[in-house]
Write a structure and sequence with these properties.
Elements lengths: L1 H5 L15 H12 L1 H9 L24 H14 L6
Amino acid sequence: GPEAAQNGLARGLENAEGANHCFLNVAIQALWNLQSFRTRFEAAPQHHHSPSPEHDEASAATAPTHCAYCALKNLFMQYQHSKQEAL
């Protein structure tokens, strides 16, 4: 982001050898570098996860606690505050 550029630190996502997610990493990094997207995404409200309608109360305890939205929010927070060059 602008803060990282001013500090001479450009962050990227690590592409471990054998991991086939480099195209996803490129897309995430492109979104991060779109100031308009990043500003609106960071300002978006948090949300709560709930079990799907076909699940009963007993399975609510095993409902997913993370989603793609939350993962991206978390990653963008790391981008903003991390001192690492690659996440």
